[in-house]
Amino acid sequence: MPIISRFFGIIIRMFYDDHNPPHFHAEYQGENALFDFNGNILKGSLNSRTATKLVREWIDLHVAELEKDWQLAQEGKDITKIKPLN
Question: Where are the domains of the chain?
């Protein structure tokens, strides 16, 4: 599962040919959560309000890029890295 971004110890990954709805996987300190592109947690938890807040801020900045990567992944094409939060 390719890493599309990494910031403040948070790893963001996206699977190829994954199920709908469009989402990505976030990992922080051994915890995992699936986020949709609106910032909702679909499954799991990060057990850190700060990490969850940072992921949601990152989504707000990069929703168009996430949608593009999702489409590329569904087509089996190479997905692109997305800038981290600074």
Answer: 3-74
